[in-house]
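Researcher: Sequence recovery benchmark, item below. Answer with residues only.
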């Protein structure tokens, strides 16, 4: 009798833990921008209790009048000690009409925190994303992240460039140099800055002498300016994109790269313990 009761309460406790685990994973998917489309598949997979499994979905994003697609493959793994599952990483592929030009990157998740689905799209598109991170000592810091499409790491991932506060990119001050009508309203300016920090290509109004122009802008921390595009998504060169960096800027960027390499090394160690965050 006691043995039966023990097994009953053990089963009850496991059921409760599995429900809590499922809800936690669902919250993570929603927070990371995958919505609720995968919830049913997630629940069915967990009921089957495999050691690991994948879920897939396709995201569509507007780029002017066109749409771009990203294929996502999400990896879930069961704990070696319990029945709990962890969402540790996902692979995102920005599709191109020419498959040979598809761009793929693996993004790592820690406790429902990391690069969101939309931020992944923005990074794969070459834009920069502003994130709050933690260093190897667990201390928080903020940095702009951008993929380096010229170099890959040992896991075949593009290396990630980081531009910290010390690099000198102040989005507020940079925006003030442009005739952006939306920044004249405090509420609209805050909304605009948040959009740019997520790496979004954002439509704004440029107030020019004799009229207004619709433009698209994106943050560019490397060159400490904004990328500009017209309504046809044609890049508007400002005469400074290819400008040779000063000695001071080169030194700062070199320090940023060195710091990033160090953080990637510690990141790799944390990933092996399922404690890494990031990209």
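Model:
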């Amino acid at each position: 009798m006691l043995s039966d009761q023990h097994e009953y309460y053990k089963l009850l406790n496991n059921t409760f833990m599995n429900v809590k685990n499922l809800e936690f994973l669902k919250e993570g998917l929603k927070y990371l921008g995958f919505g609720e489309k995968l919830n049913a598949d997630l629940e069915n997979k967990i009921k089957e209790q495999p050691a690991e499994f994948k879920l897939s979905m396709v995201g569509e994003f507007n780029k002017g009048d066109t749409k771009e697609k990203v294929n996502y493959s999400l990896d879930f793994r069961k704990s070696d000690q319990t029945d709990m599952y962890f969402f540790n990483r996902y692979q995102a592929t920005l599709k191109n009409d020419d498959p040979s030009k598809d761009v793929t990157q693996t993004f790592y998740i820690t406790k429902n925190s990391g690069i969101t689905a939309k931020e992944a799209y923005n990074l794969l598109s070459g834009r920069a994303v502003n994130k709050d991170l933690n260093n190897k000592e667990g201390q928080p810091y903020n940095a702009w992240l951008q993929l380096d499409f010229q170099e890959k790491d040992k896991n075949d991932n593009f290396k990630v460039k980081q531009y910290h506060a010390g690099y000198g990119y102040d989005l507020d001050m940079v925006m003030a140099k442009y005739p952006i009508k939306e920044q004249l309203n405090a509420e609209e300016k805050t909304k605009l800055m948040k959009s740019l920090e997520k790496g979004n290509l954002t439509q704004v109004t440029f107030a020019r002498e004799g009229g207004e122009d619709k433009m698209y802008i994106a943050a560019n921390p490397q060159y400490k300016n904004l990328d500009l595009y017209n309504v046809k998504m044609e890049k508007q060169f400002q005469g400074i994109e290819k400008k040779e960096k000063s000695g001071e800027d080169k030194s700062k960027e070199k320090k940023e790269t060195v710091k990033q390499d160090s953080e990637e090394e510690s990141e790799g160690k944390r990933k092996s313990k399922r404690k890494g965050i990031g990209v």
